[in-house]
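Hi everyone,

Forwarding the result from last night's run.
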Amino acid sequence: MQSICAAVVQHQADLGLIFDTDVDRSAAVDEHGQAINRNRLIALMAAILLKDAPGATIVTDSVTSDGLTDFIEQQLQGKHHRFKRGYKNIINEAIRLNNQGVLTPLAIETSGHAALKDNYFLDDGAYLVTQLLIELAKAKLQNRSLTSLITTLQEPVKEQECRFHILQPDFQHYGQQVLDALTHYVAKQPGWRQVPNNYEGIRVACQADDEQGWFLLRLSLHDPVLALNVESNIAGGVDNILARLMTFMAEFKQDLTLAS
């Protein structure tokens, strides 16, 4: 990503495109050399697709930002449906919703995996990029930038990911014990609220004045790992959230190690 961002600036390009080796994941770079990936890529595709499908549902993985939800639901008047991580999970969920009569044109992960209803829900990075190129051509004709569609997307001031390795042999059972204990801990914390309708791990809205963010603690399906994602919309917010959360995690320090 650093290389392509620099190349876009050097060559004064309108857009940079990048794929993984089997072209099922993709991302882009705007004309200023800024990455369009993760929440920004999801927001951009939602803005493109919801123009022709007002009120439709966008399926994403579980670690997307609150700002993305606000952008899709409040600004685009669509619906944001977070689901389990894993591109097969989100694709199958989008197919299920469509079969139930819920128009769902896009299933997309923050990793760049994306599948569109118009393309038979194939995880095809080239098809996604084609939609960006079409929108770029329209934008140039209207003398605007591609990213003008997402200028109102609120992005976190800071985000952080941590991984805790579980030392117990039955890691799934132990990991679930940690999550169960976290539910009780959160209920006693002022300014913390467990987010309902969450399909993976425990997501908590952290609404204290010095936090203003959220975290998600989830158990890996296959690895002995508890993954933690934290975001905040204010300076110092992530550190304040982690300070409270690490007090809880310290109770399990004999069986958990924080990956460097």
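The mean pLDDT is 97.

Cheers,
N.
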